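Holo prediction — SN-glycerol-3-phosphate.
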Amino acid sequence: MRPVLLINFKTYEQGTGKRALSIAKSAERIAKRKGVKIALSVQPTDLERVSKAVSLPVYAQHIDPITPGSHTGWILPDAVKEAGACGTLINHSEHNIELGKVAENVKICREHGLISVCCAATPAKAKKIAAFAPNYIAIEPPELIGGDVSVSKAKPGIISGTVKVVKSVNKKIAVLCGAGVNSQEDVSKALQLGAEGVLVASAIVKSGNPGKVILDLVSGF
Ligand code: G3P
């Protein structure tokens, strides 16, 4: 499987609305030019705008395990799909949900043909989530998220440890890692440790020159 760079736009100002589109287009240009796999995770309000404008896979940042009906303010899986999402993040560190809800969301994704990317804060959590058979598990130590020191440098054992426990449960699940990833060395180290891609936010979205950072990061593939 080719490694993936999954860019999480979070709710950063620079990753919202028209500005999200500009980052998405830079990412698309680089993906085409370099033949690398890049995916985008944007706010629900930007799913349609971004997925219509670029050919890259676009993910939601969260879904709620609900069916159409009376759920004001919740995020309907059917709706993110209709808006152009190919999948969704689940249980991001900034949007933690109970394990039971993670399981429900993974099941809903399977039923809707959506790709599930479940985040986990520890290898132990990742192992529990692996039992639900999502497509991806992303290990992200919360204390390193948004910082300058990457998980690859600060906690390499967490990446290899997660790969080991996840694969022991289900070999088909691809493991990603994230938190503080900001250079091609961080990316190549993550891949050496067994990750099949990286989840990156601040280093790209908050930089003044997202294209330059994306180019640097994919050089680590
Ligand atoms: O989802 C990715 C994210 O949590 C990592 O954030 O800013 O450390 O790249 P950041």
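READOUT: The beta strands are 4-8, 37-41, 58-60, 87-90, 115-120, 136-139, 174-178, 197-200.
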